[in-house]
Every structure is written in C-alpha cells, then in structure tokens.
C-alpha cells in the first residue's frame, strides 16, 4: 500500500482522553495481510449513537445499499468500490486497518462526504519589494485548534 494513513491510526481518538486504538503496524494496515487476532477497539461517540438526523442507525445490518445511492444518501466512495464485512455488514476502510471499529464521530456507515473550499489570492509581500505572495484562507478548527480549509460535511440530497 503506497499511501499509508497516519492520522487515522493515532490515539487517543479525537475528542476523547481514554479511547485508544489497537496498535496497527504499517505492515498490518492492508486488509489482504492476514491477521486473525486483529481486535480493533470499538468506539462510536455518544452523540452519534443518539441517532441525530445526520447519522445512520446504530445497526449496520439495516443498510441495504452500500457502494451506491441509498435514497438521498450517497454511499459511493471517490476511491472506488469498498468491501463490506460479511458477518457484521460494516464497510471496511478502503485504506486498511485503523485499530478502531465503529463510526467514532462519523455519522454514516461507509463514506462520510465533506466539501472544503480553497480560496487564494495574490498579494504584495509585507516589505513592499514588489514580490507577489500567494495567500490562502484558513480557519482555526474549534475541536483541535489546527488550521484547515473552510468547509464541512455534505448533507444528503
């Protein structure tokens, strides 16, 4: 696997102090690598389990249409077709193991689509030496203080 995900394997899980992922070495990330003893930490945030309008039912067996439009919910991934676990009816992360099972803070089983805006402009530098500087608009995230592009989750429909 050429591009290993790093942030989605860090602990503790964002917004928690005590949810630690099962450690997944780089070699064990791909699903095609046998790991019969793999036991990921189960975690779905309480606010997701309360079943708000933006979240799926807690039971993934109620989802009938993965990898396609499911009513107004787009369950297609831009990465292509993703696998569904035959026993649990849970989608597998197309990037491989993360050490976590469940939805965490995400509302949907399968893809959780988001849209971000990328706003730039050319400006003069602060020293007025006629050098152009490319500026970019970023926000400060409320949850972790990191800089990010402005945007958010995509609603169904």
Question: What does the model show?
Answer:
This protein is mainly beta and 157 residues long. The chain has two domains: 1-112, no CATH class; 115-153, no CATH class. The chain contains one helix and ten strands. It has a two-stranded parallel sheet with strand order 1-4.
Short structural description:
The protein contains one helix and ten strands; from the N terminus they run E-H-E-E-E-E-E-E-E-E-E.
Quick tags:
157 residues; mainly beta; two-stranded parallel sheet; two-stranded antiparallel sheet; 1 helix
Strand segment count: 10
**Total count of helical runs of at least 4 residues:** 1
Radius of gyration: 19 Å
Distance between the termini: 33 Å
Order of the strands making up the biggest sheet: 1-4
The SSE string, one letter per element, is EHEEEEEEEEE
The count of domains is 2
Q: Give helix % range.
A: under 10%
* Strand residue content: 15-25%
Helix/sheet category: mainly beta
Give the arrangement of secondary structure elements.
Blueprint lengths: L40 E4 L1 H4 L19 E2 L2 E2 L25 E5 L9 E3 L3 E5 L7 E5 L2 E2 L6 E2 L2 E3 L4
Parallel strand pairs: 1-4
Antiparallel strand pairs: 2-3, 5-10, 6-7, 8-9
């Amino acid at each position: 696997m050429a591009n290993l995900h790093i942030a989605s394997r860090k602990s503790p899980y964002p917004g928690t102090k005590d949810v630690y992922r099962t450690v997944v070495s780089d070699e064990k990330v791909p699903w095609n690598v046998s790991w019969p003893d793999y036991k990921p930490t189960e975690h779905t945030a309480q606010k997701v389990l309360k079943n708000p309008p933006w979240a799926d039912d807690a039971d993934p067996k109620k989802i009938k249409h993965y990898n396609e439009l499911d009513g107004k919910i787009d369950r297609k991934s831009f990465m292509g077709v993703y696998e569904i676990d035959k026993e649990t009816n849970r989608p597998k992360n197309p990037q491989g193991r993360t050490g976590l099972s469940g939805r965490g803070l995400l509302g949907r089983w399968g893809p959780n689509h988001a849209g971000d805006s990328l706003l730039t402009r050319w400006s003069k530098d602060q020293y007025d030496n006629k050098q152009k500087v490319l500026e970019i608009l970023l926000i400060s995230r409320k949850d972790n203080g990191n800089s990010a592009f402005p945007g958010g989750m995509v609603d169904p429909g």
